[in-house]
Design a protein that fits this description.
The protein contains 6 helices and 4 strands. The chain is of the alpha+beta class. It has a 4-stranded antiparallel β-sheet with strand order 2-3-1-4, sandwiched between helices.
Amino acid sequence: MLAQSLSAAYLHLTFSTKHRHPFLRDKTVRDVLHAYLGGISKQLECPPLRIGGVEDHVHILAQLGRTVTQADWVKELKRVSSHWAKKQGGDCTRFEWQGGYAAFSVSRSNLAQVAGYIANQEQHHKKMSFQEELRMLLRKHDLEWDERYVWD
């Protein structure tokens, strides 16, 4: 019997800005937001392995902590980072994340591959929109979705 609770659950999380508005065009703001998201995730005991994205969405690869649910982790990431973004001024005063998100389990053996995928977002999105990317990820993970409710 284990006297200690242990977990090694890794997630690839992605969500966009509301209506995919390009709030994060400024690379400096985007990089700081990614670091800020990493800090929030660490505080929630969900150590981030890689965070990236482009002007209209973010990807986070993290180890899900033992004491927080996936839904609470995402809710807190969005709540705190949205509050921070609005303080940056300019276009960001209207900053919002979309209501939903997509999360995919990642095996330990695929962590480097997913981290590389996230690190390569800027190149990747020269050829593909967030909608195309999310549809591809949903198909890859054999998830069904309703287009009416995915894009807010």
